[in-house]
Amino acid sequence: MPPHPETWLRVTPEGLFCVPGGFHIDPLRPVARAVITHGHADHARPDHGAVLATPETLAVMRTRLGAARAGASQQPLRPGEALTERGVRLWLRPAGHILGSAQICLEWRGSRVVVSGDYKRQPDPTCAPFEPQPCDVFVTEATFALPVFRHPPPEREAAKLLHSLALFPERTHVVGCYALGKCQRLIRLLRAAGWDRPIHLHGALLGLCRLYEELGVALGPLLPATAADRAALRGAIVLAPPSAVADRWARRLAEPVVALASGWMRVRQRAKSRGVELPLVVSDHADWDGLLATIVEVGAPEVWVTHGRDDALVHALGQRGIRGRALHLVGLGEEDEGPEAAPAADAA
Ligand SMILES: [Zn+2]
Ligand SMILES: [Zn+2]
To answer: Of the candidates 168, 197, 214, 259, which lies 20 to 30 Å from 30 by C-alpha distance?
Structure first.
């Protein structure tokens, strides 16, 4: 009988810990050995000893954290490669979340766990698609685990933005989007929809766009938004971090149309409370259907939920005869589309 994953993959104050392998996954605090699913700040924290991740995630960590804080040593592992450490076999599979994002697959004495990190099932031209990996325990996020969250086709949301530009050609369209992943995906969606003019970027987005291009994701003509004057930005698309679109920075633009690209934009009240005129439902996380379909595909009899709406997901799993367990991992969901990034005023 293979050992139950509970006996060898433990929840510790630092996060998930593989006992026989001696490493943490996406640890919250500096640890000796870390395996990282992807480069978002709530998963890829600074100052670990040895860091193992995809080459792209390691590059993102160096860009965001600086080489000195992105791990004392970095070990790249490509999807498709595998290694065995202290009897634990470890390999990575694409998670479809952002560039470099990977599921961490672990096997010890015939018992297999897949830690998916954050993931989505919608197509995304900026990263490799999610690959289901059968396992005994599937560890999943639950950011959008409520039946109300059904993400529309992203092409439709990009078309909404271009439609608004056609209606208001003299207004600057400023779109809030997270610097890592969402921004580059949005640019590719706009290019695919035929927008070949320059896209203007808030300074906070420039570095990661440059890195995506270096790693082979072509984004077309990009210009810094600050360098251009107010008149030149009439009828332009300006991308900025979500925190910047509602403040003074955006109000300096010419009659701005404020848009925000997030899965939370499905909730009208959230858009309204944030002063978002044009909500764009574009998410890098699996929606309700995506979560349930994925869990069926991987065929795991047991699912552990790291963060998000674990209550709703565990309940739905129970109805399907799958054992669900909420891990209540702290510190996850603080970036990209987590509760902090989403407007908190939805109580109103
Ligand atoms: Zn993420
Ligand atoms: Zn996350």
So the answer is: 214
Nearest to 272 by CA among 255, 282, 253, 258: 258
| SS3 at position 173 | strand
**Ligand 1 being an ion, which residues bring their Cβ within 5 A of it?**
40, 118, 336
Write the DSSP assignment of 58-104 as a string of letters. Answer: HHHHHHHH-GGGS-SEEEE--TT-EEEETTEEEEEEE-SSSTT-EEE
Report which bound ligand comes closest to the CA of 179.
1
The pTM for the full model equals 0.94
Q: What is the pLDDT of residues 220-250, one digit of tens each?
A: 999 999 756 788 899 999 999 998 987 888 8
DSSP helix/strand/coil, 236: coil
Taking each helix axis as running N to C, give the angle between helix 203-214 and helix 182-192, from 0 to 180 degrees, rounded to the nearest 10: 70
Summarised one tens digit per residue, pLDDT across range 62-90 is: 999 999 999 999 999 999 999 999 999 99
C-alpha angle 148/153/156, rounded to 5°?
115
Distance 329 CA to ligand 1 centre (A): 14
Q: At the topology level of CATH, where does 5-148+284-326 sit?
A: Metallo-beta-lactamase; Chain A (3.60.15)
Cα(38) to ligand 1 centroid in Å equals 7
Domain spans in the chain, listed from the N-terminal domain onward? 5-148+284-326, 154-280
CA 275: distance to chain centroid?
24
Number of helical H runs and strand E runs in the chain:
9, 19
Which ligand neighbours the alpha carbon of 97 most closely? 1
What's the rounded Cα separation, in Å, for the pair 322 and 319? 7
What's the CA-to-centroid distance between 118 and ligand 2, angstroms? 5
Cα dihedral 188, 191, 193, 198, rounded to 10, equals 130
Q: Supply 246's token pair.
A: 């509602």
Centroid of ligand 1 to alpha carbon of 334 (angstroms): 9
